[in-house]
Fold this sequence. Notes:
This protein has helices at about 35-55, 60-65, 75-95, 115, 120-145, 160-185, and strands spanning about 150, 160. By secondary structure, it is mainly alpha-helical. It has a single domain (about 25-185), classed as dinb family like domain (Four Helix Bundle (Hemerythrin (Met), subunit A)). About 30% of the residues are buried.
Amino acid sequence: MRLDVGQGGPTARTPPPGLWRHPDDDPRSALGPTRGERATVLGYLRAYRMTFEMKLDDLDAGQLTTRSVPPSGLSLLGLLRHLAKVEHTWARRVVEGDRELAMLYRDPDGVDHDIDGAVADDAVVAEAWEAWRREVAHAEAAYAEVDLDRLCAHPDGDIEVRDVLVHLVEEYARHCGHADLLRECVDGRTGQ
Length: 192
């Protein structure tokens, strides 16, 4: 599943400096207005997913693993792997209740391999994109019809599905900000 944020065709306008596309060619504008709680929260989540994907567009393995300011090990690839883990955890383990399912990018010692395992290897990059796209597609299907009032078991106490969705919007919004700074370190692009 691709969120279809790739470069525009031969008729695409030249984007202003620092941006990926001309504002008139921004694929998020096709999402249009939403009405109602479910459509609104899922619309924001889809827009942030698209934004995140745009921020990683056209980068190679070396660029995706450019680290932020020391001592942080954060990289764009680490964020991609982290968000795959986030999608997996909330949709499959919390909303669907499959608590026995192994978490993505975790080892028995509890070390987060989402960030630490983000190395400049084309196979690692391909696996991360495949995992993120798979988990986004699964989550979109899981959230399409689920009752927003339904309670889900969580280690901190039962939470409503709507809380999960709002948390995901917050998670993507925060990490899109991180991605802005990381991308700017790579090639000077500051976001859109």
